[in-house]
């Protein structure tokens, strides 16, 4: 792969007191400009991998770089060029949507007229401008998720990490979020996307890696993965074939 934006080399993580590695000697590359789907059942290691890449936890072994910055020497530089949109709402419920976004924008060093314009444009695009001065605690789940997304994108990150961006939202909110993500990606932001919505992943992602038990079990384009799996017509068929049908939520 020419000039990947993310390079992961033999990355491992074993939590203190754990019997097994959550991520086990995993190597992966993500091309610049992709929407890269990181999929897997519960407990597969997705969240641990994303947490390492975002600098929230330290690897046990191995290394990775983002935009050429090695995490050991350049963790601060990495944090400046990534955006993170967690599954849980990272918002202050008693503050308004605008107040939340001013706070997060100022954390990234964006101020004044530039920040005001970014906030207004983003709220308008996602159908939230008329609710800008309402407290977050009065918002629906879909509205909160859209504000959460804006907060992670205010500083125009080169890489955006998304964890279940459409979970718990209605069809209309989901459609608006997906279209917004496509536009963000078209402007040059590489997106790392995790979700249990496999049909959504099949439609949105240009490349996919399925991981289980901390290792990559397949990767490629959605159509390539489906075509290489006997009897599979959809990404969900591939997922169940490769990871089995046992329940993972226990």
Features:
about 250 residues; alpha/beta; Rossmann fold; 9 helices; globular
Description of the structure:
The structure is a single chain. This protein has helices at 46-53, 71-81, 97-107, 112-125, 141-153, 171-186, 198-204, 222-228, 235-243, and strands at 6-13, 23-30, 35-39, 61-66, 69-70, 82-85, 159-163, 190-194, 207-212, 215-220. With 250 residues, it is of the alpha/beta class. The protein has a single domain (6-229), classed as Rossmann fold. The strands form 2 sheets. The chain has a 6-stranded mixed beta sheet with strand order 6-7-8-3-9-10, with helices on both faces. Strand 4 and strand 5 (69-70) form a beta hairpin. The mean pLDDT is 93.
The second-level CATH architecture is: 3-Layer(aba) Sandwich
What's the helix-strand series?
A: EEEHEEHEHHHEHEHEEHH
What's the oligomerization state? Answer: single chain
Give a short account of the largest sheet.
Answer: 6 strands, mixed
Question: Radius of gyration, Cα only, in angstroms?
Answer: 18 Å
What is the average per-residue confidence, as pLDDT, rounded to a whole number? 93
Low-confidence stretches: none
Task: Estimate the helix proportion, in percent.
Answer: 25-40%
> Strand tally, please?
10
Reading off the top of the CATH hierarchy, the class is best stated as Alpha Beta
> In what order do the strands lie side by side in the largest sheet?
6-7-8-3-9-10
What structural category do the secondary elements indicate? alpha/beta
User: What is the CATH superfamily?
Assistant: P-loop containing nucleotide triphosphate hydrolases
- Determine the number of helices (DSSP H or I, runs of at least 4 residues): 9
For the record, give the distance between the C-alpha atoms at the N and C termini, rounded to a whole number: 38 Å
**Anisotropy-based shape:** globular
Strand content: 15-25%
- CATH fold-level label: Rossmann fold
């Amino acid at each position: 792969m020419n000039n990947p934006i993310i390079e992961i080399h033999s990355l491992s993580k074993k939590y203190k007191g754990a019997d097994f590695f959550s991520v086990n000697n995993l190597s992966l590359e993500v091309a610049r400009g992709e929407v890269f789907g990181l999929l897997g059942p519960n407990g597969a290691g997705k969240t641990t991998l994303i947490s390492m890449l975002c600098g929230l936890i330290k690897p046990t072994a191995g290394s990775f770089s983002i935009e050429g910055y090695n995490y050991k020497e350049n963790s601060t530089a990495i944090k400046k060029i990534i955006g993170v949109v967690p599954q849980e709402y990272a918002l202050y419920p008693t503050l308004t949507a605008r107040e939340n976004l001013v706070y997060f924008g100022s954390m990234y060093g964006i101020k004044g007229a530039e920040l005001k314009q970014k906030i207004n444009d983003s709220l308008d695009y996602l159908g939230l401008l008329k609710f800008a001065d309402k407290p977050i605690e009065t918002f629906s789940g879909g509205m909160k998720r859209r504000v959460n997304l804006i907060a992670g994108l205010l500083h125009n990150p080169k890489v955006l990490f998304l964890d279940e961006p459409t979970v718990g939202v209605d069809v209309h909110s989901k459609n608006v979020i997906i279209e917004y993500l496509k536009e963000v990606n078209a402007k040059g932001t590489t997106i790392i996307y995790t979700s249990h919505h496999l049909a959504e992943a099949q439609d949105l992602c240009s490349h996919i890696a399925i991981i289980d038990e901390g290792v990559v079990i397949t990767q490629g384009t959605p159509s390539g993965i489906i075509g290489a799996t006997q009897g599979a017509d959809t990404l969900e068929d591939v997922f169940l074939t490769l990871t089995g049908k046992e329940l993972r939520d226990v």
